[in-house]
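Form 12-C: Joint structure prediction
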Amino acid sequence: MTSADISTVRRSYYEATGRQRIAALLDRDSFHEWIGPRERVTSPHLKLFDVPVSFDDGVIVGRGTLDGKRVFIVAQEGGFMGGSVGEVHGAKITGVLRRALIDRPHGVLLLLESGGVRLHEANAGLIAVSEILHALLALRAAGIPVAALIGGAYGCFGGMSIVAHCCNAIVISELGRIGLSGPEVIETVAGVEEFDSRDLALVWRTVGGKSRYLLGDASRLVPDDIPAFRAAASAALLLSRALDLENLERDHECLAVRLNFYGDCKDAEEIWSRMGIISSRQVALLDEAELVELAQSLPNRKVI
Amino acid sequence: MNWEQLVKELFPEGHSVNRAGEMLRGEGKVNGATVAVIGTTDHAYIGVELALALAGEILNVIRSFPKRPILFLADTRGQRLSRRDELLGINVYLAHLSSSFALARSRRHRVIGLAYDEAVSGGFLAGGMMAEITVALPEVHVRVMDTTAMARVMRIPIERMLELERNSPVFATEAGSLHQLGGIAEIWNGNLAEHLQKVLVSPPEAVDTRAEKGYARGGRLYAAPVISRVCKHA
Amino acid sequence: MEHLEFDFPASTDSSRQTPARRDSVLVGVVSSGNLEVLVEQASLAGGCRVIVDTSIRGYGAIWQAVLADFVKRYRPRDVQVSINDAGASPAVVSLRLDQAYEDFQGDAA
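Section 2 - Result
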């Protein structure tokens, strides 16, 4: 059974749960879960805060096929504690990445939706994210492709945003957001003048999918549609991104140029203007197909 | 301990480490061999510029000095919390820094991360914790987030937050707690030069053993079994 | 948090016994105002056990009523239902139970 019968059904990635995303992304009935909810491996730390646990600790991991090819998959459930990474949650992801080094699947899909380290598990969560990063970079060094998919309500923040950029490629929708410190955290610590987290237009201009795509921080921009994510993910797994000196020096140069060109920009609109986008105010109104066309016409856009 | 005292104790045979703003760089001699030194000071906030500069130093070592050991001295208050850094993609810069460390390790450079004063979250994660082995001085404080901010974000009273920091290694900020959880491999007391020499002559750790250490030390009882279980599942 | 357990003995009404299609089903997410429901086959001499871990204390009687209603509707045999609840309303609880059980039964219902 191929995915042809589900590919015509339009499904919102944003609205779907982690489990629903996996079911719709992979070939039908191909998903086999590891450490599923029946095993009840829940967080040992949350009872200290009198908050409920989740049977899968907010992350679903396992194997399946994508167009017949064997892949491993991870889907964070944003609804549970903002997809944040605790000891068990993190270990499930690290386990998948370490296993991929041994089994060498066609690729690994990381459906990321996370606020980063789960504060309720503090140090354990911090080390967990570091272990994920180590395991992911070992996969990069071994040439096994990993694609990050971002498009859920909770965005991809904290240490997981560093994880995302260590993947071979990022597929993001217009509704997706990716940044290190969430706007609310910046506002809490540095004040509303620094970042008004309730100014949604500002938030999306700063950390939203379109902005990241234009900057070259995401390789694919897709509509909020699971079949579109699926097609882009499939293509993303074919993108090589060797962890070697030549590539890192090339990235380094691009990042240095970015600071030169845009380091004094106050807002994304200024960046877009300097990129040569005539009507930067219109960027917010373009749909992703129009934006992709626009991006491809920009001479200086480089994907990092 | 400030950085000058630190490098003096680490390199009794001599060193050329100096500071450029909040960045440290230079070389030190250990048993006649040269060790590259890169790091931060003044509880630096890691923003896009500093992240890029640090990565650049690592790439220089990889390019020019094959297999030279790298010692990363981390004193950081974490990532810079600013709209500008987010706009420019600080996460990409930190990913680049992490990748540089990973490349160094894959090219057989020994990479040691040493936390020596403050070691906070994103900055420490992308830098110090991306080493092959992470160590800390006994007086170091490691944090996920500033205590007050953490209490506010979690919506618990500050007194409760402080109580948790006192009573639980998951929340405590001393090096000993991170050691118990496996996040820090060794706490370096006393003769720092001896500790450094010992690590440099020991065989490199090919795999990340922090979860196993956390389990053996009783600080993290779930991570290692869960990782193992995923690897062995059908 | 409150931990509640409910046992519903086997019903004598055998006409509604349908074989379960799946080993287990999980629906829902533990987010604010929501819950997750795990339905599994279990050896319970034909009965149904429900285990609830909820963040809102003091609603035992409401849980009893909602669950009794669910059991009356479906007469689940040899089924264990486990719930992690983050303050869902009785209507949402009912909805999730129905979704989970119907998924569990599949086309055999």
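Section 3 - Comments
The beta strands of chain B are 18-20, 23-30, 33-40, 44-46, 70-79, 111-120, 133-136, 141-143, 186-187. Residues 3-232 of chain B form a domain with the 2-enoyl-CoA Hydratase; Chain A, domain 1 fold (CATH 3.90.226.10).
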